[in-house]
Amino acid sequence: MKGGRTIKRAPNTHTSGRKRGVKKPPVLFEKTQKIVNRIQGMIDGTFLTYWTSEYGAICGNDVQAMYEAVRVVQPRERISLFVKSDGGDGQSALRLIHLLREYVPHLTVVAPLECASAATMLALGADEIQMGPLAFLTPIDTSLEHSMGPVDPRNETAYVGQDEVQRVLNLWAKHSPQTDINPFQELYKYLHPLVIGAVDRATSLSIRLCTEILRYHMKGTQDAERIANALNSQYPAHEYPITPREARELGLNVKNMAPELNDVLLELNHLYSEMGQRAVTDFDEHNYHNNEIVNIIEGPGIQLHFQNDKDWHYRKEERQWVSLHVESCWYRCVMKNGRMKQTRLYMS
Prior knowledge:
Elements: H1 29-40, E1 46-52, H2 61-73, E2 78-84, H3 90-103, E3 106-111, H4 118-123, E4 128-131, E5 143-144, E6 160-161, H5 162-175, H6 183-187, H7 193-214, H8 222-233, H9 244-250, E7 254-256, H10 259-275, E8 280-284, E9 287-290, E10 293-299, E11 302-307, E12 310-315, E13 320-324, E14 329-336, E15 339-345
Parallel strand pairs: 1-2, 2-3, 3-4, 4-7
Antiparallel strand pairs: 1-10, 5-6, 8-9, 9-12, 10-11, 11-14, 12-13, 14-15
Helix pairs in contact: 1-10, 2-3, 3-7, 7-8
């Protein structure tokens, strides 16, 4: 599953001179609200959105932001949740499903685009998943960083996955002529035993999370466990696109989205993508500022978005980027007297 919001990346240009004013992305609340209200008239129930950019992720404090949204819109009976995300934290996906289920007995996820990794996990909690022609789910096999794990050429901790470890062991058993040698003795030369244990534990956690999320609408545990195990172990790549046809074969209640709804959701995604555009200001080759909007939650009358606001500095002696002067936070947008009012949403 995709990690948290701390994105380490170098600026794409080298500039010099004095510090310039930082780039700021647009907040298109008035435009997005018009589309949200259009969609609200097209569906049965309350419409909510949950959108993350390429550099965003499903995170723990998203649950508090979603609570703020549902507290304002006060949904009844049904929620249709527009989900577009590359993934994030699976435990947060479980908490989001639990929160939404506290308000309504029926949840529909509408996915016009990617709904990947932990976002697939989120979709598992829906009674019905509506997918457009461009939509796909993905497997939920887990990879993780570990303090004792291998380091890549950029001096950053590399991700290690259970599937990769298991494939090494399978290949050893299949091709090694020395059957009397324990393969773990060789594997430990490259992977610390604690890393292997942590990966196995993370996989068990992922299966448990999927099962618990599915049980919010599936009777019994047999089907939930079968789907959870399939998504965690039966695909050769984490990015494998699970299309609506294959999702139905897994046993998920997937339906084709109405073309009219799909088109309007893509309009909304276009505005969110404009809000989430690259907003990086390069000061020099070792310093830049990140001001991107990465996560958006919205419903009728309210929008919440998480905006990065931090400096990045490259420490040559450590060969890595470190964040400085971090003021990233959630913002809450509402209409007041015909104008947008934006305030910070403080979280503990």
